Amino acid sequence: MSSTRNEPFADRFDVCGVTADGASWLASAGTYPRSTLALWRERPGAPVILPCGSAFDVVGVPAVFGRRMVDRLWEEGPGSGPVATFRGRMLLFAAPGTAQRLPSLLRWEEFGRTAAIPPLLCHGTGDAVTVPPLLSPAPPASCDARWVVAPDTRHPWLPGPEILLWAAVRAARAAVRISIFPPADQDAKVYDVSRRR
Q1: 74 phi/psi in degrees, rounded to 5
Q2: Is residue 182 in a domain?
C-alpha cells in the first residue's frame, strides 16, 4: 500500500471526515465543547449548529463561485482553512474578525466595481452556522452538507479578510473576460482596409 492511501488527508480536497483534533477545534467554538464532542461520538453523522466569532468566522459564497475562490487559494495563494458545502453554498472558515472587515474591503475594492462578485454572507460574532457531519454519508445517500477541506488540527490556519478579498477578486476576474477594447458598435459599417490599392 502506498503512503497516500494510509494518509487520509494527503489530498485535502473531497475529504470524507474530520480528525479528532479537527473535531476538538470545531467543538471549542461552542458554549459546551464536551457536550458537542459527546454528541459527535454518539452520532458522527449529525450536523451541529456552532456560534461564530470566537474560534472562527464563516464566509458563505454561492457554490460555483466558492469553488473558484478555493481553487485560487490553493493554486495561486496560501491555501484555505476548512471549507464545507451546505445548501448550495460554500462555507469558508476564516479568522475571527473577518466577517466584520471583509464587507468594507469589498466596498472599497476598485471603488465598488466588484459587480462580478456575488453577495458574500459573512457570519461573525453573534451569528451561528450549521457545521456538516464529521463523517459524510455513504455514496448512494445525498448529503446537503459535507466537508470539502476538513479541519484536521486543533489550530488550523484560517485566512483573514485580505486573503479572502484577494481570492474573490481573482475568482471574479477569471469568470469575466476583461477586455481593454471597447465593445464593437453594432451599427457601425465595417470596411476591409486590407484590400486597399
Answers
A1: -85, -35
A2: no
